[in-house]
Structures are given as structure tokens and as C-alpha cells.
Amino acid sequence: MAENNTTTTARPLKVIAGADAFGCPLKDTLVSYLRSLNIDVEDLGTSSYYSIGAEVGRRVSSSSATPAPTETRGLVSCGTGAGVAMFANKYPSVFAALCLTPDDALNSRSINNSNVLAVAGLSTSPDSAIEIVNTWLNTPFKSPCPASGSKPWPDDIQSFLDSSLTEMPKIGSQSGNDSDSSATCAICCLVKNRELNPIDLIPGGSMKILRESPTSAIVRFKAGSVEPAHHHTFGHDLVVLEGRKSVWNLTKRERYDLVVGDYLFTPAGDVHRVKYYEDTEFFIKWDGKWDLFFDEELEAAKTAIEKELENVSA
């Protein structure tokens, strides 16, 4: 296995990591390696390639929005590395690069200032991946690389690369032009400029009905909010538009950790409780009129969730 190297980043480094099932073993190896270098790693675990890629991308994008003493980068892995890279790259100021060789890593840092590394869990060995990670960590922007013939970039190319640092983050950001419907989520348009009404029975929640029969709504909950165990006479479909939440289906004894883009169907009568880790918004659809039947008190729900999360982290 490759020897530990010291990274050359100017600021302390934090790496946010995640993978799907095919990329998890390689991700775990690289997380352990990064921690052996005393690099702060936040391991988001395993989810679908599109969910985990998007969540890592979202967090790296958010961290780059304002100057910070710590540089935040991302590490993602799936079977090929391509899927997680595509979804990480959906966020502004994220430059995810799939690297299959150290030369790929060198080029991606030198030319693209890559801040998210994607690796292929099914085709890259642990030793090769560590070599790729070392190269990616220790290559400054505009370094000599295979694409430059391993020589310093000419002045005109260096000028172009410098300009790219300010021009690239603008791509994918909101233009502020409401007439540009191609850049706007259709579901979000339904609720835009509409005030959401508080959900009186659950603190921190608000909802706006969009249409009736079948009924659909946009629901928002503030970070830290909890929905006590409850059930409905209808089944409902939901898609997370923003934020992060966990749903415990107590009837089925299953837990679902949901992030942006995730979908969940809860059958009629299934008792479930919910915890919101961030300000969260989701689209929900059901047949019939709205009803809600509580199966526990709010404080009991908070205690049960805290106990389970403590057991998980122990």
C-alpha cells in the first residue's frame, strides 16, 4: 500500500465522502487512508449513486459559497465513478472529475481545479486509488501535468486558467431571470411567491395545497423539527426538493434517510415518525382529503429518535 503523504493544500482540508453499494468498499479504504493523514473526513455512508453524488455535491457547493478557513472537497465512488460525478456536478462551483489514473487526477487539478474526486469501485484497486488520491491532494491548480507536456503552462494558457476560476462558478447558478423557464423546476414554480400555511398540529411545519383530487402540496419543515408517530387513511408519495430528513416506518420497522431527489411511498395506515436535520422542503401527493392521526406525543417522539441516533453513533 502507498505510503502516507503530506498534502500541499494552503488551508486545512475537510473531505466529504460518500458512495453507492458498488463503490462503498473503495470509499471505505480511501476514508481510512485520508484519516491516517489527519485529514478531517465526513463520511455520509452509502446510498443510491444519484442521491449520494448530489448530497456530496450540494455540501461542497454550499461550503464554497462563502470564504472559510477550511477548504472543503468531496470524494465519491460508485461502480464506474461516472454516475456519482454527474450528480455531484449539478451544483454550482462543484468540479467533479472521474479519475481512473494518477495522470487523470493530475490533469483534473491542474486544468479544472477539481474539488470533487470520483473513483470507480469496480475497476480501481485500493493501491491505485490511493495513488490517485495522493496525486489529487498534492497537485496545485495550474501545475505542470501530462496535458502540458509536464512543463509549465504558457502565459496565455495560465491567463485563461485564471479567468476560468471566476467564470466556471457562474455556470449552473441562478440567473435571476424569471422568464428563463428552462432553468426553473416545474414543481417549484407551482409554489413560487405563495405563502405556506403553518401546520398547527406540528411545530416547525408549513404546507401549501397545490391542487385537489388527487391532492398535492409543498411542505416545509424547519431544521430540528420532529413529526411524532402518526398515520393517514391514504397512502402518499413524496419527493425531497431541499434538505435532509429521516422517516421511521414503525409498522414495517424500517428507516429511510432521504436527501434531495429521493422518493418515498408510505402506504395507508402505516405508522411513521420523521426527523428533519436541515430546513427541508418536499412535494407530496395523495388521494382524498387530508387527515392526520397521532400515535404518540411529540416529546415521546423526540426521546425515541434521540435514543436511536445515539445508538447508531455509539
From TrEMBL:
InterPro entries: ChrR-like_cupin_dom, DRT102, RmlC-like_jellyroll, RmlC_Cupin_sf, RpiB_LacA_LacB, RpiB_LacA_LacB_sf
Transmembrane segments: none
Domain of life: Eukaryota
Record-level GO BP terms: carbohydrate metabolic process
GO MF terms held by the record: isomerase activity
Domain ChrR-like cupin intervals: 199-283
PANTHER family assigned: DNA DAMAGE-REPAIR_TOLERATION PROTEIN DRT102, RIBOSE-5-PHOSPHATE ISOMERASE B
Protein name, UniProt field: ChrR-like cupin domain-containing protein
Lineage: Eukaryota, Viridiplantae, Streptophyta, Embryophyta, Tracheophyta
